[in-house]
Amino acid sequence: MLIELVRCFLPVFLVALAALGIALGGMWVWAGFVGVLALVLADGFSGVDTAVHTRFPGWVYTAALYLPLPVLWVLWFVFAQQIAADIATTGQRVVTLVSVAFLTTLGALPAAHELSHRKNWMALMYARIYSAILGLPMYDIYHIHGHHIDVSTVQDHDTPRRGQTIYSFVYPSLFKSLRTSVGIECARLAKLGHSAFWWRGRIFESVCLLTAWFSMFIYFAGLRGIPYFFMTWLLAWLIFGGFNYTQHYGLIRIPGKAIEQRHSWNHLKAFSRAITFEISNHSEHHLDPDKRYEYLRPVTDAPQMPSIVLCFAASFVPFVWENWIVKPRLKRWDLNAEPEEQVLAVAENKRAGWQ
To answer: Could you say which of 166, 200, 273, 349 has the lowest number of CB atoms within 10 Å?
Structure first.
C-alpha cells in the first residue's frame, strides 16, 4: 500500500527535492539533478509493469495531478531567488537551470496532459496553468483536436518520420502545433462572431498567463533573470518534444483509418508509468483518450519500447537510437502491419535511406 502511495506522488516528490536543494544552495543544488539521474537508472533496471493501479479512491489519483502546481511555483521562486542573490557559481547555476527545466517538464507535462482530457472547468484551468509554466499554453488544443485525430500519419506534427533526428523534429513540431492551435481557436471564435483576441478566448487568456508568469519570475529574479527564464523554457521544450519523439517515432497509419493499438509505442517500465501519470502506457490512451489514467490497461500486444527515459537519452545519439533501439522494432512492426501500411513503410524506409 505504501509503495503504491509513493508511486502516485513520485513526480511531486522529485520536484520538491529539487526545490529544497536550490533553497539550501551550495552543493545541495545537485539534489534535483541526482534525483533525475537516479530515476533514469531505476527505470532502466526496473521490470515491465503490467498491473492496473487502482488501489485507492479516485480522489487520491486526482490529488496527485493537482499537487505539483504549488510545488512548481516554489521551485521557480527559489530559482529566481538564487539568481537575485548572485552568489552561486557558474556550475551551480547551470545545474540549477537543467534541474528546473527537467523537473518543470516532469511536474507539469504529465499532469497537464491528463487534466486536459477531463471535462470539468477546474481540471482544464489547471492544465492551462501547467502549460503556461512550460511556455506552451495552447498545446492542449492541438493535442486533442489534431494529434488524437492524425496520430501516426504524415499529417500529425507529433509523429516524427523515419530517419528524422530529434534535433530536426522538436522545435519545428512545437511551432507547427502552436500555429495549428491558434488557427483552430481563431476559427472557433470567428464562428461565434468574435475577434481572435476576444477577452474570453484562449489566445487572450494565453497571453495573460504567459505575461503573468514571466512578470512574477522577473519580479523576484531581477532583470538578470531574463536569459535564465528563456533558456529554461528552451530546454524544457526540448525535453517536452523529446518525449513526443519517442512515443510515435516512425509509426504509420493510413489517414482516416481507425486508430489501433499498434499506432503508438508503449513504455511499460514501472518507473516510466509512475512518473508520467501513465503517458507511457500510450496505446490504451489513444484507444480511449477520456479514460482516467489510473484505469489504463497496459497493452502488452502493442508495439513495445524499453524505458522511456532511456529512449529519451538515446534519441540524442541518432546512431544509437536508430540502430540499437528503433530499427529492430520497426522491422517487426512492418512485418505485422496491414498491407496498405506496409506499402507506406517501404516508401518511408526508402526515403530515410534505410535498407
So the answer is: 200
Q: Could you read off the pLDDT of 322-344 as tens digits, one per residue?
A: 999 999 999 999 999 999 999 99
Determine the Cα–Cα distance for residues 347 and 252; give it in Å rounded to an integer.
11
**pLDDT category of residue 1 using cuts at 50, 70 and 90:** low
* Model pTM score: 0.94
Out of 23-27, 48-52, 274-278, the most confident range is 23-27
| Overall average pLDDT of the 140-164 stretch | 95
User: Are the CB atoms for 81 and 100 separated by under 8 Å?
Assistant: no
Tell the residue number behind the cell numbers 512492426, with chain if given. 333
Name the domain count of the chain.
Answer: 1
The DSSP annotation for 4-58 comes to HHHHHTHHHHHHHHHHHHHHH-GGGGHHHHHHHHHHHHHHHHS-B-------S-H
Phi-psi region of 135 (alpha: psi -120 to 50; beta: other; left: phi over 0): left
Beta-sheet strands, E only, within the chain: none
Nearest-5° angle of CA 107, CA 74, CA 119? 45
Q: Between vectors from CA 178 to CA 165 and to CA 268, what angle results, nearest 5°? A: 55
Instruction: Name the β-bridge partners of 304.
Output: 266
Name the pLDDT band for 54 (thresholds 50, 70, 90).
Answer: confident
**Residues 6+ positions from 289 with CB-CB distance below 8 Å:** 117, 144, 148
Which domain range does residue 335 map to?
A: 2-352
